[in-house]
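Re: the 379-residue chain
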Amino acid sequence: MRIAVVKEIKSDEYRVALTPAGASELVRRGHDVLVEAGAGLGSRFPDEAYAAVGARIVTIDEAWQQAELLLKVKEPLATEVPRLHEGLVLFTYLHLAADAALTAALAASGAACVAYETVEDSGGRLPLLAPMSEIAGRLAAQAGATLLERPKGGRGLLLGGVPGVAQGKVVIIGGGMVGYNSAIVALGLGASVTILERSVDRMRHLEEVLGGRMGNVSLLMSSGLQLEESVAEADLVIGAVLIPGAKAPKLLTRDMVRHMKEGAVFADVAIDQGGCAETSHATTHSDPTYVVDGVTHYCVANMPGAVPITSTIALTNVTLPYVEAIAAHGLAAAIAHDAALARGVNVLGGNVTYEAVADAHGMPYMSLSDALRAASSSI
């Protein structure tokens, strides 16, 4: 199969969808790997590293036109959408529940679009989202600690405090992969951490894995009242809410933000799915923050892009087996044998095949099995 890797053009996006090591594995399996010139430079992978393992360095036009399977990191931007075509399989992060226009454009393109973030195994785990959630969670706590410094516009607070001075308070909304990793870093910095979670089983698990750190951690059942009380006392709030494939719920209201401390920080890791606060809107690494009612908002839509070497390697580690399956058998056969990969298909044959995305935009939904039958000749 012809597998193409293109350069990311989203603002401040330095990741690439495939490492030279990953390209080497695909070439060794007999696939034709095309890499757009300069695609890996943001992650410190020069063209020569790809060429050395047998990949072909091509132009942007050649990559898009010749690809049967196209690998990206972020969703196609407006200038890239016209390059999609029938018969192409696009494999990338899509986050379509937050973007009706892109959803409609992908459906109109005729391409099969598979989203990393909705590949889901039988245990409800999201294997292709997990490493980026780990990184984003750690970065959110790290960025929040920096933004609390007075020269950055923050309260002028050291999260860990010092002897004789109280430690800062971190509230994490959601105890999943992002929340757990945010807690690890916040605790490492010496903060007092509160995790708000709806699942008692998940709270029991967090209590087990955090172990000896539990003296600095409170695990509380999330409710509107508890959230209101907790964020009012917080120095740093981290939004770590996820409903797979669906738009994030607006749990943090404008009134709650208004009652937060002056100079407090809110980091919204759910921003890719629309954000979990009424005051959230996406920002970039070049211009990462804005202030609402005295609260600094950090809502960068591609947080892991700040550490592209770590992120690119971590991403390839988990995506490569799925890429190999699609390349070896074609998309239809690959999803027939792997239910987790099948859940990743968001658009097929002009139809939206992920129900939460269709619901988010009031668009028609077609089951994947029906879409496959209708599109069998093209995939």
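The chain has a mean pLDDT of 95.
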